[in-house]
Amino acid sequence: MEVDLNTTDGLDHRNEILQDIQTIIFDLDGTLRHNLPSRSQTFVGFLSQFGIENDLEKRHCVVRWEHYYWAQSEELAQDWLTFQVLTINEANDPFWTNYMFRNLRAYGCPPEQAHELAPEAALYMEENYQPEDWVPPEVPTTLQALKESGFQLGLLSNRREPIHEKLDDLGLHGYFKLALFAGEVNSWKPDPQIFHDALSQLDTTARQTAYVGDNYYADIIGAQRAGLNPVLLDPEGVFPDADCPVIKSIEDLLVLIES
After folding, report:
1. What is the domain range of residue 228?
2. Please, are residues 204 and 152 in contact by the beta-carbon 8 Å criterion?
3. Along the 259 residues of the chain, how does pLDDT read in single tens digits?
4. Residue 178 in 3-state DSSP?
5. Are 166 and 103 in the same domain?
6. Do 46 and 31 reside in the same domain of the chain?
7. 8 Å CB contact between 226 and 219
8. How far apart are CA 237 and CA 14, in angstroms?
């Protein structure tokens, strides 16, 4: 299953220089903090056990689907209602078995094969997907350079629980004037309200604010709806048709943002 990007025009925005920006708000997971290994890498390990080819474009299809699904999609809402309970135990939770069925279908597996493999995939992910936090070295250096250049920095995460302790653990807490998590305001990206809440707390305007994230559906569409200037972090080219400036690394912001 492929998900359209719903681009708004045919312009190439990738080399667009953002001007008059005074505030930069960042997403956390997948943007500043990453999982090692990634979920996609572990999923490919499962597929290899069954002789299913490791196809780059199919992997990108899965990543695009996952980004779409977790961006408060109709399918996610439907699954929450259907399965009622969402736990961290992928092996025994029907939600996660269904989720792996959806992953397999996004990869291109026929329905029958996806149904057959989904329980084993959920068990495999439960046993083998034990990622560690990783903050690329260019993240703190870039944040420090932006602060020294006079930019006000904020953080906006779709997490349900407080993120301040996590930021301390990651060594990132001191860079941000605001660290807002969705559960705090009961609003989740791409809902514009969470962006408006962040702007209000930072006492800035949407026009003067850039928002940097890795999830096109949650971060970019949400920021666009709220009137901010979105920047997509996409090092692997997962979203080749994104209708916004695109960077391969956080440090590329130093060139993209013109003070």
Report:
1. 18-35+134-258
2. yes
3. 444 444 334 334 555 668 889 999 999 999 999 999 999 999 999 999 988 989 999 999 999 999 999 999 999 999 988 987 555 555 568 999 999 999 999 999 999 999 999 999 999 999 999 999 999 999 999 999 999 999 999 999 999 999 999 999 999 989 999 999 999 999 999 999 999 999 999 999 999 999 999 999 999 999 999 999 999 999 999 999 999 999 999 999 999 986 4
4. strand
5. no
6. no
7. no
8. 12
Same domain, 122 and 227: no
Shared domain for 153 and 204, answered yes or no, is yes
The residue to which tokens 């997509």 are assigned: 232
For residue 13, which amino acid is it?
A: H
Tally the domains of the chain. Answer: 2
Distance (Å, whole) CA 41 – CA 39: 5
Q: Could you give the maximum distance between any two Cα atoms of the chain, in Å?
A: 56
Q: Please state the pTM of the whole predicted model.
A: 0.90
131, 128, 104, 107: which is closest to 115 by C-alpha?
Answer: 104
Residues in the chain: 259
Q: Which amino acid is at 185?
A: V
| Type of residue at 251 | E
The token pair at 125 is: 């992910």
What is the rounded CA–CA span in Å between residue 154 and residue 213?
A: 12
User: Given CA atoms 236, 241, 242, 248 in this order, what sign does their dihedral have?
Assistant: positive
CA–CA separation, 32 and 40 (whole Å): 18
Count Cα atoms within 13 angstroms, Cβ side, for 257. Answer: 29
- Give the residue carrying structure tokens 């936090």: 133
